[in-house]
Amino acid sequence: MIELTHIRKTYDDAFEALNDVTLTIENGEFVFLTGQSGAGKTTLLKHIFMEEFPTDGMVSVFGRVSSARVHPKFREIAKLRREMGIVFQDIRLLSDRSVFDNICFAARVGGGTERQIKRRVFEALTVVGLSHKNSSKPNQLSGGEQQRIAIARAIVNEPKLLIADEPTGNLDRSISDDIFSLIESINSWGTTVIMATHDRSFLERTHYREISLAHGKLIRGGGSRIIADRY
Ligand SMILES: Nc1ncnc2c1ncn2[C@@H]1O[C@H](COP(=O)(O)OP(=O)(O)OP(=O)(O)O)[C@@H](O)[C@H]1O
Ligand SMILES: [Mg+2]
């Protein structure tokens, strides 16, 4: 479970990127994170990934807690990150390495023998439908293919949580739809998914919860639907 309790984040001691955000996400859920550019979506995701720490409040992800005063040890964060896959807004593939190597680096973090690692890389590439591109360099791929590689890298260690920050950013309709279906499949296999998006069409055609931010404040969807349904 992921819990954010009264999170506030200020950058440079002044600018409030997040302001009193409280929310819960249950294991297995699919949630959208929406809000205008600059609303704080990436900042919120970075708190879950523990790349940023709150100025006030508390973040708890699968039992690891960070707050202004207490940060998990480096080793704990590394362990936590092995349980998460993240697709960054800026993709972050290594341009001078092959697709295979890009995913292999992430797979090694998950451990196992070299043979097991290679098998996991091929499985992840197969899931995203790009096993035939394993020796290409990222710049030889289309934007949609690069995004799929980023997804393969994120799921190669079978994470409990997939964070996808605008995974369909600059892609055309049909490619965006394919990537969204892929992320839905990953969720259907049991992985919790948090997907930041500007694309309302995904929200209109599904019933997943929408968590919405405006100027760093939560304006919708903080409570887990599963919990809300219980009462
Ligand atoms: N490292 C940083 N230092 C200072 N300010 C930052 C930093 N990171 C983000 N901000 C500011 O925090 C605010 C929220 O940024 P964030 O990237 O979380 O927005 P976003 O909702 O992801 O926007 P977009 O839809 O454009 O990706 C912005 O005003 C941004 O300029
Ligand atoms: Mg962002």
Features:
Rossmann fold; 35% helix; binds adenosine-5'-triphosphate; 231 residues; alpha/beta; 10 strands; binds magnesium ion; six-stranded mixed sheet; globular; four-stranded antiparallel sheet; disordered C terminus
Question: Short description, anyone?
Answer:
With 231 residues, the chain is α/β, with parallel strands linked by helices.
Please tell me about this protein's structure:
By secondary structure, this protein is α/β, with parallel strands linked by helices. The chain has a domain at 1-83 and 194-231: 3-Layer(aba) Sandwich (Rossmann fold), CATH 3.40.50.300. Helices cover 35% and strands 26% of the residues. The chain has helices at residues 41-48, 74-82, 99-109, 114-127, 143-155, 173-188, 200-204, 225-230; strands at residues 2-11, 15-25, 30-34, 56-61, 64-67, 84-87, 161-165, 192-196, 209-214, 217-220. The chain has a six-stranded mixed beta sheet, with helices on both faces. A hairpin with a 2-residue loop joins strand 9 and strand 10 (217-220). Mean pLDDT is 92; it is low at 226-231. Bound molecules: adenosine-5'-triphosphate and magnesium ion.
